[in-house]
Design brief:
The protein is an alpha+beta fold. The chain is built from 17 helices and ten strands. The two termini are 39 Å apart. The structure holds fe (ii) ion (FE2) (2 copies).
């Protein structure tokens, strides 16, 4: 905390544990963060006298003064990568995620670590606050002092800020934040499955499809992949048998994004890639369900129809006005996704061409997910590491060798979700890869009991951990087939 007289504490600062935080407080906090986010954003577009701003300022005042009425005053503070309202950590909500990120980013850039409202605000003080804040030059460490001086000059003493503090080694906070990201990841993952299902049903019924919602979800997924991609990769191992096409589309999108990120794609290109992943099998919405879910092998005519789904997907996407301008990368990517790297797949081409980059990424992501998912006609899918071995045999044939290498590095030798036997005789499920390439064989593992029965326990061990004599405590002996042990891997990622 700074020592200047600006480092004023709110009168009420009783430390309450996060568990004691009621749902109302959490909601109020999230509301406040959202309001600050929008205020900052729109104040960069309009000048401080603009009338259009008025209505939003009024709405924000309501939220701000509601907090002050309840709490007497408030301090919104950054500690590492979290926001605390009157010393209580605010958990991200799915809707609030973007606002949290925005506030953390913008305040940190300006070296502002805390904003204190000491009493109820009115329109003019709030306008002064927001414009003084956004006008601070980014990267200046003395911004907090400057801000307080400027507010003083305008005769406002009720709003003060403190400089950003640096925090090191606060693992407790870090872990709490990870837990939130896990929660948000789960919500976004399942919401995307639900939304792609809705959209494909709408397309099938010739109704208006809510494509914008999907796009927003893809953008959130990209945020989360940047934060901790192992969480989404873990969720992608949950294979939902009944909802194959939807679940598969989301998984392909996640795997594609993980590859695209390694290729250094911009956020915009990643968004296009994520959308292409979600839509790659959209052509299947034109194929009768009886054929899609047929438990036996397809006959000649059915197979001919099935092979048309990339082309039908292209047609669908071209007709989908809600997508806006036609995106050639997306259209070609969908066309290419079964073409194979050496062009031996379908649709058959009369003239040679090269498979597009999006198409080559999809080929890898699509094949991996399809091979590791149980299907009506193949109840026990390939083991994850087995799948990679099979794919490697087809490197240069079905798959672009470079992209396949990148993908194997992402899912690693022991992909997240693999069931492994340890040298202690215990069973484990691979939870998170080791970030050190030289320790690729030493991921984090969820420990199961010896007979694999106590599926309720979730102890995570780190295979890179050594005992006092420098010997590793656990090592992987081999991978096992979860179907033979009756272990439901998905449970451990929910
Ligand atoms: Fe396909
Ligand atoms: Fe597919």
């Amino acid at each position: 905390m700074g020592t200047t007289d600006s480092a004023i504490q709110p009168e009420k600062s009783i430390r309450r544990s996060p568990e004691a935080m009621g749902p109302d407080f959490a909601k109020m906090g999230n509301n406040l963060v959202t309001k600050f986010h929008v205020l900052m954003r729109i104040s960069r577009t309009y000048d401080s006298k603009n009338v259009a701003l008025s209505q939003f300022i009024q709405e924000s005042l309501k939220t701000i003064n509601e907090v002050i009425n309840k709490e007497g005053s408030f301090a919104l503070k950054i500690i590492r990568d979290d926001l605390y309202l009157n010393e209580q950590r605010l958990r991200y909500s799915v809707e609030g995620f973007t606002s949290f990120k925005y506030i953390l980013n913008q305040w940190k850039k300006r070296f502002i670590g805390e904003v204190i409202f000491k009493e109820a605000a009115d329109e003019s003080t709030l306008r002064a606050f927001i414009y003084t804040l956004v006008e601070l030059e980014e990267g200046r460490e003395d911004n907090a002092t400057l801000f307080n001086e400027k507010m003083g000059q305008q005769g406002i003493a009720s709003i003060r800020v403190n400089a950003l503090e640096s925090f090191e080694g606060e693992d407790g906070v870090y872990t709490a934040r990870k837990a939130d990201i896990r929660e948000v990841s789960k919500k976004i993952f399942f919401e995307t499955i639900g939304t792609i299902k809705e959209v494909m049903t709408q397309i099938r019924g010739d109704q208006h499809a809510d494509v914008r919602k999907l796009k927003r979800l893809v953008q959130k997924t990209i945020h989360l992949i940047m934060e901790d991609e192992s969480i989404l990769l873990g969720l992608a191992t949950i294979k939902n048998y009944d909802e194959y096409t939807y679940n598969h589309s989301v998984n392909v999108s996640i795997y594609s994004l993980a590859i695209g990120r390694r290729l250094g794609f911009s956020r915009d290109t990643l968004t296009e890639l994520g959308m292409t992943g979600l839509f790659h099998d959209v052509g299947k919405s034109m194929i009768p369900k009886e054929i899609l879910n047929k438990p036996a092998a397809l006959d000649q005519t059915e197979w001919v129809l099935m092979k048309k789904h990339p082309l039908m997907g292209v047609e669908t996407v071209l007709n989908l006005k809600q997508l806006g301008e036609v995106n050639p990368k997306m259209v070609i990517g969908i066309f290419d996704h079964h073409l194979k790297y050496d062009l031996s797949g379908y649709p058959r081409l009369f003239q040679k061409k090269k498979v597009s980059l999006f198409g080559r990424i999809l080929q890898v992501a699509d094949a991996y997910d399809a091979m590791t998912t149980p299907r009506v006609y193949k109840k026990n899918p390939y083991r994850l590491d087995e799948t990679l071995a099979i794919m490697l045999k087809d490197s240069g044939g079905h798959f672009d060798p470079t992209l396949l290498k990148i993908f194997i590095a992402i899912v690693s030798v022991y992909p997240i979700g693999s069931l492994v036997l340890l040298d202690t005789g215990e069973l484990g499920i691979v939870y998170k890869p080791n970030p050190e390439p030289k320790w690729i064989e030493r991921p984090q593992v969820i420990l199961l009991s010896r007979d694999g029965k106590e599926e309720g326990t979730h102890q995570v061990i780190d295979l890179a951990e050594a005992d006092g004599k420098g010997h590793f405590k656990w090592s992987i002996v081999k991978t096992l087939d979860p179907n033979q042990y009756n272990i439901d891997i998905a449970k451990y990622f929910l």
